[in-house]
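Write out this protein's structure.
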Amino acid sequence: MSTPASDRTAVTDAPILDILAERWSTRIFDAASTIDEEALASALEAARWAPTAANTQPWRVIVARRGSEEHAKVLGTLAGFNSAWAGDAALLVVFVAETTRDGQPMTWALYDTGQAAAHFTVQAHADGLSTHQMGGFDRDAISAAFDLSADFTPISVMAVGELGDIRTAPEELQQRENAPRERRPIADTLLINA
């Protein structure tokens, strides 16, 4: 059995806010805990106040609590490995973008929805919740399960809940949780730095 990671704080090349350096995406959730409703309300409020082009607020959110029919629907759309661990999370949250409005494309909808998800994640972490965002899911199945109109596009699914005990997780999951946190260097990200 792997040794649990004691500190997942990112090693940064420049100082950043502690809350950002400490936030990481776990795959190990406490399957017995329920969601802290106050922390959830704060995370949703943070998403509500994310920046948005022309105040269009194109994001929508599906919140599905573990044990509900909606949770089962979302869980059933997850691809491969995601479906093996995400069901333990107290919530599965689907971020949906309104990509057209009144027949016109909403050019910034994906960007704005991503910002709403990011704000949700940071606030959730600040309030003691763990999160993991996923792109591996069947978008068409989400749309069908929740009768979304063609104007709305599911963007991501986020597992949300209390951090679980890594020592009780399967070996493969422990190895992923204990793997070093890595990001490419800033120099490889900057296309131009004039």
